[in-house]
Amino acid sequence: MLFLYITLSLIISIMVFILFHSYSKIRKLRNQLKKSERNYQDLTEKYNLKNQKFERRIQEELEKNKQKDLLLIRHSRFAAMGEMISSRGQQWLQPLNSLSLLIQDVREAREFGEIDDQYINRFTVEGLAQINVMSGIVNDLRKFYQQNTEKSFFSVGDSIEDALTMFSSSLKNHNIQVSFEYRGQHIGYGYPNEFSQVMVILFSIFRDIFVDKNIKKRKLVIKLQESKECVIVEVFENSGDIYPAHIQKIFDPYFSIRSDESGLDHYIAKMILEKMDGRISVENTIDGAKFHISLPKCAVSTEREAVSV
Q1: Predicted confidence (pLDDT) per residue in 21-76, tens digit
Q2: What is the pLDDT of residues 237-249, one digit of tens each?
Q3: What is each CA distance from 268 to 54, 104, 158, in whole angstroms?
Q4: Model-level pTM greater than 0.85?
């Protein structure tokens, strides 16, 4: 009996020891867990703080890059504006010369007594006609460089025609033949003036390449077509191939295929198109290079706008 009592006491003691030891371990583990939780919270707060700083820095850098891109586009617009004013300014010479001759003729007509109602009517009609020509040139420049603040539906063909009109003098002066035929409106969605600016940038690039390579027969062929989702503009030029290694980098900033240019024109054209969800690429053909431009069609753009709202 005594042995049984001793055995039970021993078992109970062991169980109490085990329970006490287990409780001590559990308590220790609980304290470690609380400490780990506090450490985890501290690390989480530090991580969130650093992450917030990092995100702010990213946003600041993105904003800086956005401002840089806007400055580049603005610089491109001013550069193109100067060239357009120079080009269109030459077209002012003819109406100015005509007005000058009309004014000089008034003095002679007065001396010979030729001023009558018929002479006054002819002078008025011819003078106003020349003024209207000059006014039209000013309005074209104003329209071309008016910045679009909102995307809209526009005729891609008409925007290309506007660019050709603005750049026509420079193209003629450098003996560049342009073939552009299209049927239908080919409605795209974006910024019509900015799209015209892209075309002017390309025309300027082609002109400089023709001159740099001393190409004799200079031709540009512009084709318009549509896919299911995009309006596609293809521009062919016959100045010869572009080096394959250059094709991969031609739209990178500050990369130039010519030593005397900044390397920004292709990049700016790409940036402007990407603002309209457009794309631009280039590939070699038999006679030269083909630039491929795609712009969203109105139906696709409408769906995008609906989703964004």
Answers
A1: 676 777 777 777 777 777 777 777 777 777 777 777 777 766 666 666 666 666 65
A2: 998 888 887 888 8
A3: 29, 48, 22
A4: no
